[in-house]
Recover the amino acids of this structure.
């Protein structure tokens, strides 16, 4: 199961993807959209900034921007910032279960690296026809 950090980070990044190419988006706006406590989101976005997925802009009209386009930022990029090991983690290569979990990890890596933030937006729009985002 994915951590809340990863889920909330993805939710926040999807919101930034909706505003890609525009002005910086204030954290309070991202928090309100994602129904995420602002203090918790502040911590998450600090990690995303250190992971080079977002840039913070200071000042009166400051906020956050995606560093790469929504087409180039994948779910694997997001997850790796919080959990670089993904599935196999600290499992030693000689462990009897290693081959099984490595195969599962390879499938996940393939799917997560193929799904960009813009793909997530398309998926959300197709699943819920009530979602109308202006980009």
């Amino acid at each position: 199961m994915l951590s809340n950090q990863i889920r909330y980070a993805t939710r926040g990044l999807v919101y930034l993807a909706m505003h890609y190419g525009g002005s910086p988006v204030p954290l309070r706006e991202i928090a309100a959209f994602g129904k995420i406590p602002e203090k918790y989101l502040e911590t998450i976005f600090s990690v995303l900034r250190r992971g080079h997925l977002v840039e913070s802009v200071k000042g009166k009209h400051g906020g956050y921007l995606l560093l790469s386009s929504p087409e180039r930022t994948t779910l694997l990029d997001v997850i790796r910032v919080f959990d670089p090991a993904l599935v196999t983690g600290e499992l030693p290569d000689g462990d009897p279960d290693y081959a099984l979990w490595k195969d599962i990890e390879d499938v996940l890596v393939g799917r997560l690296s193929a799904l960009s933030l813009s793909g997530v937006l398309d998926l959300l729009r197709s699943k819920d026809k009530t979602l109308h985002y202006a980009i």
Notes: The chain is about 55% helix and 5% strand. The helical segments are 4-18, 27-34, 38-50, 75-82, 98-114, 117-127. Residues 98-114 form the longest helix (17 residues).
